[in-house]
Amino acid sequence: xxxxxxxxxxxxxxxxxxxxxxxxxxxxxxxxxxxxxxxxxxxxxxxxxxxxxxxxxxxxxxxxxxxxxxxxxxxxxxxxxxxxxxxxxxxxxxxxxxxxxxxxxxxxxxxxxxxxxxxxxxxxxxxxxxxxxxxxxxxxxxxxxxxxxxxxxxxxxxxxxxxx
Length: 164
Ligand code: ADP
What we know:
By secondary structure, the protein is an alpha/beta fold. The protein contains six helices and five strands. The structure holds adenosine-5'-diphosphate (ADP). Adenosine-5'-diphosphate binds next to helix 1, strand 4 and helix 5.
């Protein structure tokens, strides 16, 4: 059985992430969607909230499992008996950082490979930060995130007095 991991911050999950997850789930027997702790990013949603939004948004894909990890991806992937990480690649913005990450991960874990799926044309500009910025400035985020996520972003906006 071939298991892959789709790691990310998912703060929150967007339609761009979901497209990559759906396509990766079709390529592997089992796909672990892993909410990874990122010390460089201040997250808006707690890990519990991010996991919950993923669970709701991925309920239609039976071979996905959602997990959280605060370990190195190279160690976590070994722990869950997977050896492939699937990442989405948007034109320009992702290449350099993803290339560097793939190389360091392979240095840390020689069994591990990173597979890149090109982001869908209509999602090239989409990121969790764009969604938060648009919502913060009162723009419409319908269609950029699943409905359950849209509701939670708007609720967070109310609860934080507009500070996303
Ligand atoms: P973000 O860049 O939105 O903060 P993450 O850190 O959660 O997202 O990224 C997790 C993975 O999802 C990365 O491989 C990233 O390149 C990919 N990804 C993010 N947004 C998109 C998108 N719109 N289309 C395809 N892949 C994406």
